[in-house]
Amino acid sequence: MEDVLYFWKHSTVLDIGECLTIPDEFSEQEKLTGMWWKQLVAGAVAGAVSRTGTAPLDRLKVFMQVHSSKTNQLNILGGLRNMVQEGGVLSLWRGNGINVLKIAPESAIKFMAYEQFKRAIRGQQETLHVQERFVAGSLAGATAQTIIYPMEVLKTRLTLRRTGQYKGLFDCAWRIMEREGPRAFYHGYLPNVLGIIPYAGIDLAVYETLKNRWLQQYSHDSADPGILVLLACGTISSTCGQIASYPLALIRTRMQAQASIEGAPQFSMLGLLRHILSQEGMPGLYRGIAPNFMKVIPAVSISYVVYENMKQALGVTSR
Fold this sequence. Notes:
Structural class: mainly alpha
Family: Belongs to the mitochondrial carrier (TC 2.A.29) family.
Helix content: 55-70%
Number of strands: 0
Shape: globular
Largest sheet: none
Radius of gyration: 20 Å
Distance between the termini: 13 Å
Protein name: Solute carrier family 25 member 23
GO biological process, one term: transmembrane transport
Strand content: under 5%
Order of helices and strands: HHHHHHHHHHHHHH
Organism: Pipistrellus kuhlii
Subcellular location: Mitochondrion inner membrane
C-alpha cells in the first residue's frame, strides 16, 4: 500500500496550470521522515517552471475565452500574432508572475485543509474510500480557492492588460479596488468553486480507474508504473476533468474580465451562460480549448522532469 502511495502521486508531480485536483496521499513513513514537505516544495518549483514554459499558450487561452466570438473568430496563430504586435514577444508572458506566485499559498492551504477534512470524515476508520477522498479534496480545494481567489482575478486582469495599462501587480490591485470596490476581487467566484466538482471528481475517478487497472494486470513485482504510464494516466485524467469543467472556467474568466472591458454588459453567472448559448451555441462555451489542450503535454513533461530533479536536490529518497 505504501508503495502505491509513493509511486502513484500525480497532483503533486504533474502541473497543467489548474490547481483543482484532489491532493495526493502521503504514507505515514513520508510524514514521519519529513519527505512530504520536500515533495510539496519540489512540486511547487516544478509547477512554476512548467507554467512559465507554457505561459504563451495560457495567455492565448484566456485571450480567446474573453475576446473570441462568432463575429471575431480568433485562431491560434492570429491570436499570437495580435499579442506580439500589441506588446512584443515578452507580452506573451503577461500574468505569469502572479500565476507562479499563487502556487505556494494555494498548495499549502489545500494540503493543510485536506488533512483536517480527512481527519473529520475518517473518524475511527484507518483509510478513506475514494468517495470520501473526493469530498475532503473538494472541500480543501474550495477552502484554498476562497482564500487566494483575489489572486485569480488579478491574474486574469494582468494577462489581458494592454501595454502601459498597469505599472505592475500592486497598481492593478489598487485600481480595481478604487474603481470597482472589494467585491470585484470575487467576480466569477461561484462558477470557479462549482468547477471544482466536475474537474476533481472526473480527474480522480479516471485516474483511480486507470491506476487500478494497471495494478491488477501488471504490478506482479512492483507498484512502480514507470514514467510513461504515470504521465499517460495523469494526462488522460486531467484532460477529462478539464473538458467537463471548461464551460464553468470560461464563464469564470469572462466574469473576472467583463468589468475591465469598456461598454461590456455586466452579466451574472446564469445571465452569461444564457447570453453565450443564445449568441454562439455550445461551441461558445469551449472558446480557447485548443491552446489549453496544446499546453497539456509540454506542461506535464516539464513539471515531471523538474520534479524529479528537485526531489534529488532536496534529498528525497527513492525506493
